[in-house]
Amino acid sequence: MSQLIAEHVSKTYDGARGPVHALSEVSVRIGQGDFVVALGASGCGKSTLLSLLAGFQSPSSGRVSVDGVAVTGPGSDRGVVFQDDALFPWLTVLDNAAFGLTLRGIPSQQRRERAKEMLALVGLSAFAQHRINEISGGMRQRVGLARALTANPSFLLLDEPLGALDALTREQMQTLILDIWQKSGTGMFLITHSIEEAVMMSTELLIFSPRPGRIVSRHYFDFARRYAAGESARSIKQDPAFSQARSLILEHIIAQTEAV
Ligand code: ADP
Ligand code: MG
User: Which residues line ligand 1 (CB under 6 A)?
Assistant: First the structure.
């Protein structure tokens, strides 16, 4: 079982008006089957952490590794999905989903077969030949997920993928992502602003302090595993334990904002 690990990573940017300490001494361990969620105010370094895990940039100090091997750049073992779907509007849904494999030189027929399977997984089989500008925002995020999944990654890194969606679509996407997690056994790292989403989806929830981002507390929940084991999201959210967990996290978030 693969593990994606950040050990004591810090990141300082050369900002236009001097150094920006974005992240300080952050350690995270994402095993396959884990669902790690990062919650914290805007600007506290969550996306920076994700880009270090993805290998888009390197830490100023500390280390990111997969199974003991240092991460030096992006890799097909780590799929990434952003809030802004970053799809090609002139390509079809199928070609967008297959795109990740294009870069890896996999033959066209094989690419399309794999992409079709992933479109089926996200419920988009009927839309394979549509263009991106013909489908809704929620569907675009599902194409982004399918594209990230075609390379069969061990880890999925999701930067507020549901932030721009309406409430109902968002809830449907949450359960879809949990279904994918359950079926694929992928290790998940999700950034969100929604406390309810964080509590519902996480096996480990990380609360960040404002800049420089540090992890101020970690919370372990079993709601995502209960969903994966067959309980409905509705029944879980009606459980008093769920509201208690939500209130607890809200308290922690408020404490962070007041500490500024
Ligand atoms: P979050 O995702 O939690 O909102 P970010 O990781 O995007 O936070 O940003 C953390 C801090 O680092 C912010 O103050 C942001 O302005 C700064 N920052 C992010 N990227 C860069 C960059 N490339 N150059 C300079 N500063 C940056
Ligand atoms: Mg961000």
Answer: 13, 15, 20, 22, 42-48, 211
Distance (angstroms) between ligand 1 centre and the Cα of 21 equals 9
| Ligand 1 centroid to residue 104 C-alpha, Å | 30
Q: Whose CA is nearest to atom 22 of ligand 1?
A: 13
Q: List, for residues 43-93, the tens digit of each pLDDT value.
A: 999 999 999 999 999 999 999 999 999 999 999 999 999 887 789 999 999
- pLDDT tens digits, residue range 160-200? 988 888 888 899 999 999 999 999 999 999 999 999 999 99
Q: Using H for helix, E for strand and C for coil, what is the string for the chain?
A: CCEEEEEEEEEEEEECCEEEEEEEEEEEEEECCCEEEEECCCCCCHHHHHHHHHCCCCCCEEEEEECCEECCCCCCCEEEEECCCCCCCCCEHHHHHHHHHHCCCCCHHHHHHHHHHHHHHCCCHHHCCCEHHHCCHHHHHHHHHHHHHHCCCCEEEEECCCCCCCHHHHHHHHHHHHHHHHHHCCEEEEEECCHHHHHHHCCEEEEECCCCECEEEEEECCHHHHHHCCCCHHHHHHCHHHHHHHHHHHHHHHHHHHCC
